[in-house]
């Protein structure tokens, strides 16, 4: 049971967003801009994967399954393949640039100061641009917010992971704006 | 030196918000509502939550800026200085001690927030909305602190920068200045 009375039975962040519509709007706009804006050289799959990985490191069940299912949808991967990336991305087939960006995201999850100049250099050597590095850090930082919001208020999450996989194609179609009741 | 190219006269978060205006807009809007919108928590109390979280995350820019804003709103410097050292002995209400404890737990991890800490806040009179806002403010500053330090942003060269910033946060708020920030080029530089 959530720590506060949300007056609805929606799971995860959707329950919080229905409870607090004033904060829902900017939160969803941030997710929409960061994760879906087409003016971006990182694919939607790349960006969802960063969100998934950080949510996994923060041990947030709801977020890592929502965004893992979306990453899988965009990348054409099943849950097992997404799980393998979460557990050890270095030994998977993702691009060297994405490996360098996920390494940066993992440090952001620990704390801003944990990111090193060497990691930034390594990402640049794999072709990462300023904007890609910026977006990686901001996506990771944003999920450090989303995960804390979801778990800090003890929201509930469907335990059947297929639930998230089934919803992903429609979410990919609709986007995050006004996603609360859909 | 920041890890990406930012404007020299804009230290800390300010350069990032100008670098990426598309993402800045919802971040600013969220902050404006949480820290300046209608609430049963005072603006000074909400700045204390931001201060405690930024201090716990060792983010120098955010801690100094929100300490200055809390000080300006409260008209004294003792409270903000005290909550950073020890929430339990700081000169704040029992409700604020309980909410600042929830904020500190949220900073650690969402999963670190205990039912006991929430019960203590409710016993001290905290409403559901106050608890909700405390968790979301703390979570938001976990974003800010990581954004600011994760991209290696610069600190202002002049300590007076924070007083000017605090004045802006108190008198104008968190929305973007309509005229932008070019006027600061004359006054400030970064280290």
UniProtKB/TrEMBL annotation, chain A:
Residues 21-85, 91-154 form the Carboxymuconolactone decarboxylase-like domain. It comes from the Bacteria. SUPFAM superfamilies: AhpD-like. GO terms for molecular function: peroxiredoxin activity. PANTHER family: CARBOXYMUCONOLACTONE DECARBOXYLASE-LIKE DOMAIN-CONTAINING PROTEIN, SI:CH211-175M2.5. This is Carboxymuconolactone decarboxylase.
Automatic annotation (TrEMBL), chain B:
InterPro entries: AhpD-like, AhpD_core, CMD-like, Uncharacterised_peroxidase-rel. It comes from the Bacteria. Residues 29-78 form the Carboxymuconolactone decarboxylase-like domain. Transmembrane segments: none annotated. Coiled coil: none annotated. It holds the Pfam family CMD. GO terms for molecular function: peroxiredoxin activity. PANTHER family: CARBOXYMUCONOLACTONE DECARBOXYLASE-LIKE DOMAIN-CONTAINING PROTEIN, SI:CH211-175M2.5. This is Carboxymuconolactone decarboxylase. It comes from Mucilaginibacter pedocola.
């Amino acid at each position: 049971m959530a720590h506060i009375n949300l007056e609805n039975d929606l799971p995860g962040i959707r329950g919080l967003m229905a409870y607090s519509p004033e904060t829902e709007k900017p939160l969803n706009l941030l997710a929409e801009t960061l994760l879906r804006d087409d003016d971006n050289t990182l694919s939607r799959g790349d960006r969802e994967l960063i969100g998934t990985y950080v949510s996994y490191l923060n041990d947030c069940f709801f977020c890592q399954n929502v965004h893992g299912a979306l990453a899988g949808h965009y990348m054409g991967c099943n849950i097992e393949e997404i799980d393998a990336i979460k557990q050890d991305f270095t030994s998977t087939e993702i691009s060297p640039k994405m490996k360098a960006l996920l390494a940066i995201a993992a440090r952001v999850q620990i704390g801003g100061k944990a990111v090193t100049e060497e990691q930034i250099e390594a990402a640049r050597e794999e072709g990462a641009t300023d904007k890609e590095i910026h977006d990686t850090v901001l996506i990771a930082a944003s999920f450090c917010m989303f995960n804390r919001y979801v778990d800090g208020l003890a929201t509930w999450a469907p335990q059947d992971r297929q639930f998230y996989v089934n919803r992903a194609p429609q979410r990919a179609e609709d986007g995050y704006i006004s996603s609360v009741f859909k | 030196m920041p890890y990406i190219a930012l404007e020299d006269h804009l230290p800390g978060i300010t350069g990032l918000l100008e670098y990426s205006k598309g993402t800045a807009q919802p971040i600013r809007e969220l902050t404006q509502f949480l820290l300046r919108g209608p609430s049963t928590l005072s603006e000074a109390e909400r700045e204390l939550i931001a201060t405690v979280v930024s201090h716990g995350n060792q983010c120098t820019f955010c801690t100094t800026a929100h300490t200055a804003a809390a000080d300006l709103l409260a008209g004294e410097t003792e409270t903000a200085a005290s909550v950073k050292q020890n929430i339990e002995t700081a000169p704040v209400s029992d409700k604020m001690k309980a909410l600042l404890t929830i904020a500190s737990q949220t900073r650690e991890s969402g999963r670190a927030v205990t039912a006991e800490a929430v019960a203590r806040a409710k016993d001290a009179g905290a409403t559901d909305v106050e608890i909700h806002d405390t968790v979301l403010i703390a979570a938001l500053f976990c974003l800010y602190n990581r954004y600011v330090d994760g991209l290696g942003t610069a600190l202002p060269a002049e300590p007076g920068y924070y007083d000017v910033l605090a004045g802006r946060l108190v008198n104008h708020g968190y929305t973007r200045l309509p005229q932008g920030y070019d006027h600061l080029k004359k006054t400030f530089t970064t280290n």
